[in-house]
Amino acid sequence: MTRPYPASGQPQWRATLLALALIPGANCLAAQTVSELELPSQEITAVREAQDGYSAKTASTASKSSVPIMQEAQAVQVVTAQLIDDYQVQSLDDAMKFVSGMTQSNTLAGTQDGFVKRGFGSNADGSILRDGIRSSLSRNFSATSERVEVLKGPASLLYGALEPGGLINVISKQPQYQWRSTVSGESTSFGGGNAMLDVTGPVADSGLAFRLIAERQHEDYWRNFGTDEYSLVAPSLSWTDNDLRLTLAYERKEYSTPVDRGSVIVDGKPARTDYAKRFNEAWAQAEGSDELVTARAEYQLNPDWLSRLTYGWNNERYDYAEARPDSLLADGALRRRADGSEHDNQTQYLAWDWIGQSDWLGQRHDLLLGIDSERLDNFRGDTYRGARSGARSGGFNIYQPVYGNLAEPSVISNVQSDRSDELHSQSLYLKDNWHLNQQWILVLGGRYQRFEQLFEQGRGDDHAKTTDRQDSTLLPFGGLVYQLNPQVSLYGNYSRSFVPNASDTDSGQAFDPEQGRSYELGVKLDLAGLSASAALFDIEKKNVLVSNNGVSEAAGKVGSRGLEIDISGRIAERWELLGTYAYTDTAILDDPQNRGNHLVNAARNIASLYLTHHLALPSEAGHWRVGGGARYVGERAGDNANSFWLDSYSVADAFIAWDSRLLGDKTRLQLNVRNLFDQEYYPSSGGNLRVAVGEPREVRLQASVEF
């Protein structure tokens, strides 16, 4: 039975369209409803999350609503769904190739996402979000990911404790009100592959829509042994009725992945060993499970105001084991320890936001008012710390590796077990995009946050609570946007950030939080399908923990300044382009030992260029696309002492794709080649005994059918 429109239908359905357009993935329904009602297009262009190929017009991360990127007083880049499809993005590392100024940080032996953003960042620094909710998971990209939004510079105004370089927000696929089913499979030249199912559609005329995504992967690790495998299932529901929209999503992933510390430094350079041979054992792996729950309720109070209630919970439980490198002797003997640990990390988040427009004295205010509560709990239970293996008995030589002489972790350390690190906070925040006239937008905001920090470690007589403190902070934000015309806007901003410091594990001394401040100037262009931006920034962070002769103090200061350029979109009828460049000058400004040195893993120069061409062939031959490009990453400091550097590298990728209606609505065959020229490179450092090794050439073949 078809529901009739209410008598006062048009105003109510306009409100519903606004609510839908504010939700990632709801564009399809919004567009369908617009067509049925034949509303003027200008009624939704201000809020619709438009994406066209490699460029995006809007993003939700900077304002928690779909504000045009041209009207934001911050740099925002979007890795679109088309980019993800064309280059078969498998991880956030793959996605960040398309964003300026991003390099890999220490990834905890390849098991965690970790990125340096404008010179700052590490794994587990809280800068990766899933649908606007901080993630406690090690890996955050999967078949459920629709696009990735990157907000540059301090983002503490809306998201609390964060490094000042920026954040990464992974946006999930949402239920759709049109039937679509996709079945796909991939194989890799490393061995193995994956299979994926994605089904979405309405549930009769109930107002419900569902989506079910399932994926199974089993791939051989590219080095001499190991497998990378996982199983994922992610159901979600959405219900819409007039002014109310409810969404509920769940995701579970079970995984096993190799733990690989990579290579070691010899005479200032990575050791000249067999590139494909590991320095650990077959039992060195991480096994665990991830779970996410997201619930969101949105109510359109009137055509101008939306109220949104969001709850999020994510949890990761995993076991970790490694043959940890301890020291390297001159003859290549690597002393190792059998270490391991059990982890249980989770985030709980609750927020109530009010998003709307208000006119006062003839001037428009795009307002966001909100309160949130967040609880981060990281627990490390049984912690294994083995004895260092001898240079001869039970040892390991990197030039002539022999495996099996080091037993799995079995010795529990009472001192380092039962480590609990908690951060609880409650915040009030406000952001106002104040349209002074048709060209000038004044952006003002602030966040008041109270937080409690708890840290304890040790088991039995070795238990010690080193941190139990409460504090508060006020974080201002100010920006100005000048829209010269619809195609050109200039902006500037000043903002602050904070990150609580952990207490000294020996003395128990507590330290003030790290505090960052940032200045930024930029320009944004939107020229007939081509988007471009350039930004100059200057960031300083103080109260950085440093150690002098074993005594810790929050006296350090570090800085970063530079230039970023991003360009994406259609440059001709059949050509699409994406290019980036970043110059980042980092320095340790105040430190007893390392003053004047560069920050770890922060490249001074990074650039990329990718081109895609749609071939002009007869329609009966299907739709063919070819593309490729390369990314250059300059040399990076390997440690704070700058005792060694990782060389610069360039890695090229290419693809060819064919779409047709051979089977169902769309059949696709696609061939991707990564690291086309088989370059050996080292993307990041965790110290002279922990240097990540880049993947060699890989060929991936994908086949999919949509019906």
What do you see in this structure?
The protein is mainly beta and 707 residues long. The chain has a single domain, classed as Beta Barrel (Maltoporin, Chain A), CATH 2.40.170.20. Helices cover 5% and strands 56% of the residues. It contains five helices and 37 strands. The strands form seven sheets. The protein has a 22-stranded antiparallel barrel. A five-stranded mixed sheet has the order 5-10-11-8-9. A two-stranded antiparallel ribbon has the order 1-2. α1 (9-21) runs antiparallel to α2. The chain is globular and about 75 Å long. The two termini are 25 Å apart. 45% of the residues are buried.
Name the CATH architecture.
Answer: Beta Barrel
The overall average pLDDT, rounded, is 89
Form type? globular
Which oligomeric form is depicted? single chain
Percent in strands:
over 45%
Helicity range: under 10%
CATH T-level fold name: Maltoporin, Chain A
Radius of gyration over C-alpha positions, nearest whole angstrom: 26 Å
Q: End-to-end span in angstroms?
A: 25 Å
Q: What are its keywords?
A:
707 residues, 22-stranded antiparallel beta barrel, globular
Set out the fold topology.
Blueprint: H1 9-21, H2 27-37, E1 51-52, E2 55-56, E3 58-59, E4 67-68, E5 76-79, H3 81-86, H4 92-95, E6 102-104, E7 115-117, E8 128-130, E9 133-134, E10 145-152, H5 156-159, E11 166-172, E12 180-188, E13 192-203, E14 208-220, E15 227-241, E16 244-258, E17 265-266, E18 269-270, E19 285-302, E20 305-328, E21 334-360, E22 363-385, E23 419-435, E24 440-457, E25 464-485, E26 488-499, E27 514-527, E28 530-548, E29 551-572, E30 575-590, E31 605-614, E32 623-633, E33 636-637, E34 645-646, E35 649-660, E36 666-674, E37 698-706
Parallel strand pairs: 8-11
Antiparallel strand pairs: 1-2, 3-4, 5-10, 6-7, 8-9, 10-11, 12-13, 12-37, 13-14, 14-15, 15-16, 16-19, 17-18, 19-20, 20-21, 21-22, 22-23, 23-24, 24-25, 25-26, 26-27, 27-28, 28-29, 29-30, 30-31, 31-32, 32-35, 33-34, 35-36, 36-37
Helix pairs in contact: 1-2
